[in-house]
Design goal:
- This protein has 194 residues and is mostly helical.
- It has one domain.
- The protein has seven helices and no strands.
- α3 packs across α7 and α4 packs across α6.
- It starts with 10 loop residues before the first helix and ends with a helix.
Length: 194
């Protein structure tokens, strides 16, 4: 049995894939949501959330389409489900209402931070799309770069909160709530076919 251990690392592919994932994950835009979650549950484990998101993304990169096919779900349906989650998260930010209730605060690092905030339907759909155009090893490097950025932002939410102050956070929360709502609508429309 012969294995091909050659790698096709390409800086252009890594750069493009990194930018696509950065835009879809939108960890900077999620700062108000992260601050809000931390105020509800007390603490978000940055390392745990980052590692779980990394595992989910890499697993989906290799097994995603197969898993969805086996359970009879197409990528569009998966993306539409993700758009609903983003929609409800955006309503929390815009209207200042509490829809997400966590009975076990320790799980906030996994749900909704690692999934669906970081490794959500948009990210999963993007990974499948990227796989059609780029080499897998370049996508893995791009995932690693984005997870490193996610970890830094998750670790810095308290400092960012102090830097912005209550008024700055309130303004950013509303603005990014609207952006998140727009992303949810776009994800829904592009997968429903309007």
């Amino acid at each position: 049995m012969n294995f091909d251990w050659s790698f096709n690392f390409n800086l252009k592919e890594i750069g493009t894939a990194s930018m696509v994932l950065f835009a879809v994950i939108d960890i900077i835009g999620s700062i108000p949501l992260l601050i809000d979650l931390r105020s509800k549950v007390g603490h978000i484990e940055s390392g745990k959330a980052s590692i779980v998101a990394l595992i989910i993304m890499i697993a989906f990169l290799f097994l995603g389409e197969s898993i969805l096919t086996v359970i009879g779900i197409d990528i569009s349906s998966f993306a539409i489900a993700g758009s609903f989650i983003l929609f409800f998260l955006s309503l929390e930010l815009i209207l200042g209402i509490k829809l997400y209730k966590d009975e076990m605060p320790s799980t906030a690092s996994i749900v909704p931070v690692a999934f669906p905030l970081i490794a959500g339907a948009g990210t999963m759909t993007s990974l499948v799309s990227l796989q059609a155009e780029y080499h897998t090893e370049n996508i893995i490097v791009a995932i690693g770069i984005n997870i490193a950025l996610v970890y830094v932002v998750l670790k810095s939410t308290r400092k960012i909160e102090h830097l912005l102050g209550p008024t700055g956070i309130a303004i950013i929360r509303k603005v990014f709530g609207i952006i998140l709502l727009a992303i949810a609508v776009k994800l829904f429309r592009s997968n429903v076919g309007f």
